Amino acid sequence: MTHPRSAHPWSSRPRMPLILRLVIVGAGALVIWLAIASLGTVLWDEEMSLARHLANALSAFVLAGLLVVVARKLLDRRPVATLGLTRGLVAVRDLLYGALTWLLPAAVGLGVALGAGWLQIEINATVAETIGVVLLLIVLVFVYEAFPEELVFRGYIYRNLTTAMAPWLAILAQALIFAAFGTTLWVVTHGWGVLLERLVMFFGMAVVAGCIRLISGSIWSAVGFHLAFQVVMQMFLSGQYLEVSLSDDRAFIVATAVVAFATAATIAGAFWRGQPNWTRPEPDTALPAAHATSRRLSKSDVAAVRRSRR
Questions:
Q1: Percentages helix, strand, coil for the chain, rounded to the nearest 5?
Q2: Where does the record locate the signal sequence feature (predicted)?
Q3: Within-domain flag for 244
Q4: What is the domain count for the chain?
């Protein structure tokens, strides 16, 4: 008779201590994005053409996905879906709600800024061209940044941290790791002048995304939040695919990003009702409810889970 520990990966012990697994995945993610940036510079110089953007996005999506899958299955000995990857219509709902936690307050803040005359915006493109750019950015940001980064940080790293500490503390810890990751990338590619600005921005974003991830229980909510934030910022501030004139960049950032960061977690609480766990560690020894509801369990699955809880 097969012992449940060998038949069900969620009841097996990880192959190495938590800190080593976090270092491997965190350092691996940094190496992946640095390698992509370096290779892109070799192939396309410093220009961020559409071809380079697409190549970078696909590389990050595939390599970061493989990193998490391999680490979760071989090092953690757990199913990848237990990182918070809800499925089907639930995943679509979580993604849309996550995007709305950023878009709703940002739209209100932007409307107030425009109405009060603090900000003027001019888009030098037709409606069709603007819609095309928005759709393009949604795809690029999802593949290059939102999904792979959330899978690594609010998925793998956050879930592993919650096995050893209170979830609220895990949010802060993963935010520090994400801030170090993102700031390092920007310092390497843009110099030390961006250090403080990027450190604060990445930490703040990661805290809010972590709160949304905790409240919803789903990675997709954090992906939606990340996606909305990056699409709007790149559309209005980068000038790469759309010519946009802003009277005051800082006023735009405050009216949208700062307002959204300050209120997104509260809005998430309205979208996902319930009593989220902020204080108790969540041992990774049984199949989480989010995963159990995403697929049908066989009788042997249920029996193995019950045995692992004894």
A1: 75, 0, 20
A2: none
A3: yes
A4: 1
Report residue 49: phi and psi, to 5°: -75, 170
Model pTM? 0.88
Range of the domain at 240: 4-273
- Within a 10 A sphere around the Cβ of 197, how many other Cβ atoms? 11
| Least confident piece of the model among 147-156, 211-220, 237-246 | 237-246
Residue 17 is assigned to a structural domain of this protein? yes
Summarised one tens digit per residue, pLDDT across range 169-215 is 999 999 999 999 999 999 998 899 999 999 999 999 999 999 999 99
Task: Name the amino acid, one letter, at 78.
Answer: R
Q: Which long-range contacts (CB under 8 A, 24 or more apart) does 114-122 make?
A: 118/248, 118/251, 118/255, 119/246, 119/247, 119/248, 119/251, 119/252, 119/255, 120/246, 120/247, 121/236, 121/244, 121/245, 121/246, 121/247, 121/252, 122/244, 122/245
Residue 28 and residue 61: Cα distance in Å, rounded?
14
**Cα(51)–Cα(81) distance, rounded to whole angstroms?**
32
Residue 310 forms part of a structural domain: no
Q: Distance (Å, rounded) from C-alpha 93 to C-alpha 51?
A: 31
Residue with tokens 């792979």, as numbered in its chain: 148
Q: Which of 171, 137, 138, 148 is nearest to 69 (CA)?
A: 148
Amino acid found at 173: A
d(CA 303, CA 285): 14
Task: Decide if 296 is inside a domain.
Answer: no
